[in-house]
Amino acid sequence: MFGIGMPELLIILVIILIIFGAGKLPEIGGAIGRSIKNFKKATHEPNEIDVTPPDDKKSDEKKS
């Protein structure tokens, strides 16, 4: 994977730990997880948007 081995990953993790601190790591991990989940969801959803009005609006127009 891009020539990154275990020692390089450990160095990156230590730098992240120093920058953000141990208290923020769970929040960062959760945010990254939600981002990946939303990205996967967005890639599987259809691109079309339904812009037709709901049935309630149609029945209101008929009454007028």
Would you mind describing this structure in some detail?
The structure is a single chain. By secondary structure, this protein is mainly alpha-helical. It contains 3 helices and no strands. The chain is elongated. The termini are far apart. The model has no long low-confidence stretch (mean pLDDT 80).
What spatial form do the alpha-carbon principal axes imply? elongated
Largest sheet, described in full? none
Number of strands: 0
Q: What is the beta-strand fraction?
A: under 5%
Amino- and carboxy-terminal Cα gap: 65 Å
Structural class: mainly alpha
Estimate percent helicity.
55-70%
What series of H and E elements makes up the topology?
HHH
Q: Rounded to an integer, what's the Rg over CA atoms?
A: 24 Å
* Count of helix runs: 3
Low-confidence stretches: none
Average residue-wise pLDDT = 80
Annotate the secondary structure layout:
Blueprint: H1 6-20, H2 25-44, H3 55-63
Brief account:
The chain is mainly alpha-helical and 64 residues long.
Task: Throw out a few tags for this protein.
single chain, 3 helices, 64 residues, mainly alpha
